[in-house]
Amino acid sequence: xxxxxxxxxxxxxxxxxxxxxxxxxxxxxxxxxxxxxxxxxxxxxxxxxxxxxxxxxxxxxxxxxxxxxxxxxxxxxxxxxxxxxxxxxxxxxxxxxxxxxxxxxxxxxxxxxxxxxxxxxxxxxxxxxxxxxxxxxxxxxxxxxxxxxxxxxxxxxxxxxxxxxxxxxxxxxxxxxxxxxxxxxxxxxxxxxxxxxxxxxxxxxxxxxxxxxxxxxxxxxxxxxxxxxxxxxxxxxxxxxxxxxxxxxxxxxxxxxxxxxxxxxxxxxxxxxxxxxxxxxxxxxxxxxxxxxxxxxxxxxxxxxxxxxxxxxxxxxxxxxxxxxxxxxxxxxxxxxxxxxxxxxxxxxxxxxxxxxxxxx
Length: 361
Prior knowledge:
Blueprint: H1 11-22, H2 28-41, H3 46-53, H4 57-70, H5 72-76, H6 87-102, H7 113-120, H8 124-133, H9 152-164, E1 170-186, E2 205-218, E3 224-229, H10 234-247, E4 253-258, H11 267-275, E5 279-283, H12 294-306, H13 314-330, H14 341-356
Parallel strand pairs: 1-4, 4-5
Antiparallel strand pairs: 1-2, 2-3
Helix pairs in contact: 1-2, 2-3, 2-4, 3-4, 6-8, 7-8
């Protein structure tokens, strides 16, 4: 009688397997193998695992045995298959990769599997397999921007220091404006969400005006201070600064993180700051909105309240925004920064080096 291979996991192995088993972007075959090993490590019989996962028992035995022999690498990678090597692909793979990464088609900017197959003289499926196996996705791109601010290191260290090690007897705020929020009404009635049917919205809309949302998040507790104003000038910014200053008890210093927008540095604003020495401004580097944590909250309110809404007036839009703020403040959650400044600086140095060495530079 055969005995199932006993599986014992280290803490790191268990953490990795749990991550694979729950990962939304993890390949389905790896999710299944991770679940098999996790259940095996709990002492479950192979037949019980097979029944629970609704798979053949021999599949469970195979991956138990593979993990016992090769650990994580044994289930992460498939064993090489037998059979004749794909000679056509082997001969063309290097040329497909070279053309994909260094040349452009005569028509347009992006290769398709059909256009590249025609240029190389092979089949569309061969190009598709080469792209897939080498992680090439010409139709996708990632956006980025490396700051050229000459004071980038100093400003980065200053802001990250406030996040990770805020000063005593002080309150830190991350602030910004979300300007030109449109009150959009749809041209026809929408159909509500229903089992088996998506909520519908017409693709066209009517504009009923705009508002600007000024917002600040108090970093220690996550409380939001916000106000909506019709314009986006230094006068409105100063009004918002006064609201922040009035919300903080006397005797506490106030540190405000903001971007480099001109209204934040207007002469009138600087004069007010001089008269209120407990308020200290800290500016993020240029092209570094990711460093201002209030941007994460702006993304949430846009996704959850503004974009899906239907507003017949600016007042309706403002009401929804302020109701959302009130709901956030009923159960405030601080935004936690974890990355140290030196790790960010090292990543920026690598990015600049890559740009300097890029052929297209």
